[in-house]
Amino acid sequence: MARRLAIALVHHPVLDGQGKTVTTALTNLDVHDLARSARTYGCSDFFVVHPIEAQRELASRIVDHWTTGSSAKRIPDRKEALSVVRPVATLDDAIAGLGGAVDLWITAARELGAPISFARARERLAAEGGPVLLVFGTGWGLAGEVVSRADAVLEPIRGAGDWNHLSVRAACAIALDRLRG
Question: 31 with 62: CB under 8 angstroms?
Answer without folding.
Answer: yes
